[in-house]
Amino acid sequence: MKFKVLSNKDWWIEETNFDVNKINLNETIFTVGNGYLGTRASLEEGHTASRPGTFINGIFDPHDADVNSLVNAPDWLPNLIWVNGERLCMQTCKIIEHRRILDMKHGLLYRLTRFENSRGLITRYESVRYASFADQHALELTFTLTAENYSGEITLINTIDGHVFNLDRMPAYKETPTFDPEVRWEKWTKSRHLKHVHTNAADDYLYLEMQTIDRPYCLNYAMAVNFNTKAVITLQADFEKVHHIAKIKIQNGQTIQGEKLVSIFTNRDVSDAKLADTCIAHLATRKTLTFDERLNAHKKIWEQKWTDSDCIILNDTTAQKTLRFNLYQLLICANEHDERVNIGARSLSGEGYKGHVFWDTEIFLLPFYIYTQPKTAHALLMYRYHTLKGALANAAATNFSGARYPWEATDSGTEETPKWTPDGKDRFWTGEEEIHVTADVIYGVLTYYTATQDLEFLLNYGTEILFYTARFWISRLEYNQLADRYELNCVIGPDEFHEHINNNAYTNRLAQWNLERAYEIFHWLEKEHHQHLSSLQEKLKLSATEVVAWQDFARKIYIPYDAKKHLIEEFEGYFKLQDLPITSQDENGMPQYPTGRNHFNCNDIMLIKQADVVMLLYILPAEFDDQTKKINYEFYEKRTLHKSSLSPSIYSIMAIEANDTQKVMQYFKHAANVDLVDNQGNAEWGIHIASAGGIWQTLVFGFGGMRVKNGKLTFKPWLPQEWQQIKFKIQWQSGELVVTVHHSQIEFLWTHPDMINLEIEALSKLVTLTNNQSKIIKK
Predict the structure, then answer these.
(1) Of the candidates 97, 448, 472, 615, which lies 20 to 30 Å from 544 by C-alpha distance?
(2) pTM of the entire structure?
(3) Do residues 373 and 262 share a domain?
(4) Phi-psi domain of 484 (left: phi exceeds 0; alpha: psi -120 through 50; beta: other)
(5) Residues 374 and 292 reside in one and the same domain
(6) Catalytic status, residue 303
(7) What Å distances lie between residue 648 and 291, 639, 694, 708, CA to CA?
């Protein structure tokens, strides 16, 4: 089976043996998805150490949990196998051979396992699963069983299991415990989010309907199982479960093949009245297609996605594969067809952060979609527009005006940050104090507009978000009469180790930037789109006095800065903290906490969690000269512990700009492998999707040297000696630019449907790119 459906090995991520200690990690790594949903790579036959998960984007529920959570949806994978009455699984059999391959080119998970039971009977099991990109409601598991040394009876029970839970809280321990993997999930309390509505066993399909308990979502599954040989079939409709039971006589050396087709719809997709009929009819249509027809349609979409987004690294096959792994994860977690959903911090691959949306989207993820999948970027930003009502409610709930976007968001846009860690030991203040996310949203809005020139989006949606957030900053800023300046007090910056601080440089500058852009765009609308502005002013009750205040406040916002040393102070008083040095690294070469320190007790020292000032230097590249970037990078680099997966990719990019070439690849490799080698130690909770977005940025903005400065594309690339070249493609203002970077030159190929030329800056030279003609710039 494998050589007929899989691409070449350059696109494979492989598991070559079964290790129960890595079962949850590999469930994350081998996730399949299509933006509508994601399914973790749990074994079809089950395992007590497993943590299965299928997550449908946008299905949240708060019932029985501390906060609103992305619901662990019914499990469609179970395929239990008995040979002559003895079950085949990793825990009952000797495993002669086990292998899984994630084919990233086509979004397929292939598996081969050879089981030997207690009687010495050997069964070869192969399967391929995927979530269709051609039809987002379609899931498929195709499998074969071969009796290698016996004849007998095989029983297969394919199930859809609606009796599922989310993990909620765990007990508090004095020290970090190590649990046996087969019981570790039993230590957690579980939150129930689904209730049974209906099950049905028809002549040729099974049907399950579940409903979220506190939210009005209905989840409908229909399943059909077929075999290429005679089977005695029994269909069972149970409470919260449906079962397809097949008994098949098999001869020595015979191979039987089965296919499990599953259709999933929710009442977010169609109305309640049509939901059941739509789901069942969809399954019936899928059954009329052959395996090849279904698979080829899926592959066709994948081919186009890779054409648009693949990045090439020559002469480093390891870096190429890890880069593609990160791109694969980005491609399977975003839904261009649904403007009401976004991307959670662990994508659709695990329960980490309960599926909540952070600033990660605008700062780490959105650039990938803006420059390779602009329709997807549009959908992600429309989510922020559709949740604007929640952002307005957030501000009002804390006695401020305008729109304050939540630190953690779900389907409503209201604040969803938990108050406590899962064990109840430590308090989270981010929901109250990490307010820079509001300006980060605007950064995403305007980055998208600059790259796409999508005027319809800016006029009808972006400007409304922009003006409401400006209103929030005006109400949140405090006037310091003695110093004649405006301040933001009691905040948390991107660093996150330091809470209840005043005047975080990143937060203050982004708030200032937000106000500056609001003032600038208001006056642009006044000149170019006066009628639209008038309607918007009426809707927002926006006065000329308020607009003037945007500029007046922005001019007086305090940014902590030591002009003599060219050092930006992370926050007011930071330079007075104890300068405790980093003295040890882990096995991955990353800094470790000093003895006695952890995430919650670093408030009095200068060590920081992740890029903060360095992040500011990165996202506003035109504002800082090379000397300022280098001085600040060197100061904060030696004080950064990188206890967030968001940090290494940014430091890799800024190491290039600061000419710290010894650290570039160290940070790049750490970020690229954060999940593949689990160097943060928590990938079992889901893919670190922001880091995946950061890796694309490292390739394009770091090694490729691409930046947008004052609305213009600029390029100043750098390649490690071991790389021969890199190549990537971006979408820019309705055109397409292919960039190939060598050690001695940069090659550009620009194409635009309207034959428009493009002016860029490359290696500090102004260059005009003629449509459809290659241009080489020598270094």
Answers:
(1) 448
(2) 0.97
(3) no
(4) left
(5) no
(6) no
(7) 42, 13, 8, 22
Pairing of strands 37-39, 32-33: antiparallel
Tens digits of residue pLDDT in 468-520: 999 999 999 999 999 999 999 999 999 999 999 999 999 999 999 999 999 99
Place of tokens 């000032």: 613
Q: Which parts of 461-582 fold into alpha helices (H)?
A: 463-476, 505-528, 530-540, 544-555
Are 510 and 494 in contact, with CB atoms under 8 Å apart? no
**pLDDT score at 3:** 56
200: CATH = 2.70.98.40
pLDDT digits (tens, 9 = 90+) for 1-10: 555 899 999 9
Beta bridge partners of 329: none
The amino acid occupying position 174 is K
The last residue of one of the domains, among 617, 647, 677, is: 647
Which domain, by its residues, includes 128?
2-308
Q: How many CB atoms lie within 10 A of CB 367?
A: 24
Contacts of 598 (CB under 8 A, 6+ apart): none
113 in a domain, yes or no? Answer: yes
- At 733 the three-state DSSP class reads coil
User: Is the alpha carbon torsion for 238, 242, 248, 253 positive or negative?
Assistant: negative
> Out of 44, 140, 415, 496, which one is annotated catalytic?
496
Q: Which residue has the tokens 């009469």?
A: 481
Q: How far apart are CA 537 and CA 541, in angstroms?
A: 5
CA-to-CA distance for 334 and 339, rounded, in angstroms? 10
Question: Looking at the structure, do residues 295 and 364 belong to the same domain, yes or no?
Answer: no
Q: What is the pLDDT of residue 423?
A: 87
| Residue keyed to tokens 């699963």 | 129
DSSP-assigned letters across all residues of 745-773: EEEEEEE-TT---EEEEETTEEEEEPTT-
The number of domains in the chain is 2
Determine the 3-state secondary structure of 128 from DSSP: strand
Strand 122-131 versus strand 712-715 pairing type: unpaired
Task: Check residue 261 and give its pLDDT.
Answer: 98
CA distance 757 to 594: 55
For the domain that residue 437 is a member of, what is the CATH number?
A: 1.50.10.10
Q: Are residues 370 and 295 in the same domain?
A: no
